[in-house]
Specification:
By secondary structure, this protein is α/β, with parallel strands linked by helices. The chain has 13 helices and 13 strands. A 7-stranded mixed β-sheet has the order 12-10-9-8-6-7-13, with helices on both faces.
Amino acid sequence: MKASKKLVSFLLVLTMLCSCFLTGCADTTPVYNGDPESEYKVAMITDAGDITDQSFNQTTYEACEEYCSARNIPFTYKKPDGDTDYARIAMIDVAVAEGYNIIVMSGYIFAAALVEVTYKYPDVKFIVLDMTEGDIIAAAVGGAYYDNPDAYDGADYYNKGNTYCAVYREELVGFMAGYAAVKLGYKNLGYLGGQSVPPVMRFGYGYVQGINQAAEELGIADEVNVEYAYGGQFYGSTEITAAMDTWYSKGTEIVFACGGGIFTSVAEAAAKTGGKVIGVDSDQSPIIDAYGVGMTVTSAMKGLKATIFAMLDSIIYDNTWEEHVGKVENLGLVSGTDTSLNYLGLPEDTTQWNENFTLDDYHELVRKLFEGEIKVDPSTEQVPEVSVHLNMREGSIV
């Protein structure tokens, strides 16, 4: 009987060893920065919107959730109860109190919150998308910053030792959208920005340059017209819808709506005439096409997901956080051949390619931009000089 029990025990051990050999017995718990005892928890703070906005909030939320879910890392999101700095700071406080030590936020609207919390929580790591150091300093000192930016040191106003910021070369993807629109056959185009702040202006000026480049290549610059305006806000309104009604009714075929929820006014107006829309920041076709099937020709996307994945990897797995923290990185194209690696681009699955401008043509455009064969001016100091007819509206619609 004893021999039999020993044989059974031996067989059980052998079975376990074989199982480990075949399937792997390694601990699948993520190793955080090489120290299995230090665990990270990720929290995303929304701005005044929700995680279903088909823009920055949703893209940021989905990227964080996908990353953390796949790696068994605790994740949550917090929505402020109002559109105030106080409400945003309160949600950061709540997240930190609950033990979340990586905070992800999107948009310059969080600038004042960073001034308040980055020194307050030195052990928390902050990943902030679409924010410059100037945004943070201006939130602290006001408009005086813009009178003499060189007089200020960002370290006096936020903790560079735990904060990473990313901005994007909006002019490049704006260029792509304008270039594609003309190549796809549109001659009467519009640009509606939210407010005349640098990121929105770079989108718009890049868009105009792309339109001009494609029109000159096709020899139709005299036939191309561009309406250009800022709404004065980042949400739709009856006044803005009325202005867009005028554009579409007078022949505008497609409008690049660049400014959060301002696309609603563009889409409402486009639906009345069968007009088209270009989305921004993320692939907005699911939400814009709700106003009219096939309304969204393309979207000028920023690579928020790629940025979030790269920065979380740098903290949790790669131990390269020190190479990024304290910087404001200007992200754009990193490959001329693999568009999936880039931080900017058009959505390849939903853009309405045709025989005049194919997916292959788009890839060739990206290559030329990456290699410098085509150059895009990122300046916002003056309106680009173009050959097409450009009608710039003075002031804002609202």
